[in-house]
Amino acid sequence: MPPSPRIIAVDYGTKRVGLALADPLRLFAQPYGTFSQDEAVDRLKQMHAGEGLAVVVVGWPLTEAGAEGPATERVQQYINRLRNALPGVELVKWDERYTSELAREQLKQAGGPRKRRADRGRVDAAAAGIILQEYLDFKNDA
């Protein structure tokens, strides 16, 4: 029996894109890595060609007041790029407010060398993990 298509999250940034992957049962999110924008698209295309992707959850950077702004415009352009690169894959926008702060706090609590905890790449991947875990929890509670 082939594996079921995966669910992945994207934490888009102008310099780096954090990715997180759900386990096959779609219960837990695991940070997958941090890549350039182009590398992230390539990785997603490879995953889609291999295991298949059911859903890509994209962090939607609303302002603190919950409004859209310049950041959401940039992410929408990346979503359009993903839509072209991943035909047939559902793309979901997910409120990402405070995920980077939560990721920094989780990395701090996990311990390890301060320099490693502060690494922006690790924070971006962890933020993608938080976005994905929130989405999975929401879907599993529905």
Could you please describe the fold and organization of this structure?
With 142 residues, the chain is α/β, with parallel strands linked by helices. The chain has a single domain (6-141), classed as YqgF/RNase H-like domain (Nucleotidyltransferase, domain 5, 2-Layer Sandwich), CATH 3.30.420. It has 5 helices and 5 strands. The radius of gyration is 15 Å and the shape is globular. The chain starts with 5 loop residues before the first strand and ends with a helix. The mean pLDDT is 89.
What's the total helix number? 5
State the secondary-structure class.
alpha/beta
State the distance separating the first and last CA atoms. Answer: 27 Å
**Beta-strand fraction estimate:** 15-25%
Question: Can you name the CATH architecture?
Answer: 2-Layer Sandwich
Please report the first level of CATH classification, the CATH class: Alpha Beta
Shape: globular
Please compute the radius of gyration using only Cα atoms.
15 Å
* Count of spatially separate domains: 1
Features:
142 residues, Nucleotidyltransferase, domain 5, globular, alpha/beta, 24% strand, 5-stranded mixed sheet, 5 strands, 49% helix, single chain, 5 helices
Short description:
With 142 residues, this protein is an alpha/beta fold. It contains 5 helices and 5 strands, in the order βββαβαβααα.
Topology of helices and strands:
Blueprint: E1 6-12, E2 17-22, E3 29-35, H1 37-50, E4 53-60, H2 70-85, E5 90-95, H3 99-110, H4 114-118, H5 120-141
Parallel strand pairs: 1-4, 4-5
Antiparallel strand pairs: 1-2, 2-3
